[in-house]
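Need tokens for this chain, all 347 residues.
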Amino acid sequence: MSKSSQLANQLAQQLRTADTPDGVRLFSLLTLGELGRKCPKVYENDSTLKPEELLVDAFNSSSEELKTAASYSLGMLAVGNLEKFLPFLLKQINSQPKRQYLLLHALKEVIGSESVDMKAMEFFRPRIEQIWPVLMDHAIWPVLMDHAVCAEEGTRNVVAECLGKLCLVHPESLLPLLKDCTVSKNPLMRASAVTAVKFLIVEQWTAADDLLHDAMPDFLQTVNDRDLNIRDILDVFLPSLYAETMVKKELVREVEMGPFKHTVDDGLDLRKAAFECMYTLLETCLERLEINEFMTHMESGLKDHHDIKLLTCLMLARLAALCPTQVLQRLDRLCEPLKVSFKRGLI
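Here are the structure tokens for all 347 residues:
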């Protein structure tokens, strides 16, 4: 511990020295944060060493790299000692509007860090009520309207990521609140809420999955939103949607029923839902779709289960009426699976 304390003081001294090179300063910022995450007691034993203030001071740097490093390290400090540094971070977000983008990045590290263990989560969960209003107030922050478009979008994206990852922590209470935001009168609020769903979808099963399944129709309804900020979120959803149109071999299994073997596809219902979503998108926002990409994924449905084939044929008929040129260009590829189905009397 004594060596860790010596290192922390050395890092602090390098940050306080005006002529420290940027490379050394960058190393000091990152190491200060990692030290707080791995050895949080270092900062508990020395009241004169205030790493959070050193990191916030680095936000005044002209170097974007240094400011980003300070933001990350501030988040790592809070991960290591939530009780001490999370209240400081929330206070800074509320009181420092010009630094909110960097501070929100720090909060994002806290929410999403895998290092937040169950013991730390016991402290973290009661403070969700503090964090949620901060994020939602920020999503409608009127000052955004005075900034460049890219700056507004970047800040909203950070807010959305925080919201989504926060819902993973406590889905029972927070996901309904997120769903309510999709009907907000403020389009920025609606856009942030829909973007947040992207960060709720993770590879491993979570407690939020079942709740998200029930709430997804409300989020998907926003493809009809009059505000383009919300409809543009379609680009976020399409890759995930298209990925679910493919047969996943790991979900196909054989079940023995006496002397017979029966193939069971556990992914069938999800694929059906994906193709139904595609059909809805075709009917509601054709102008937002890249037709060739859409048809590439639609084609797989012509070789799938009977129910999916029927739905794909409906989409194909609709596309032939709406986009005849694109359909003609792919006619050879479309005819082969159709011919096989006709010969077998499947459609």
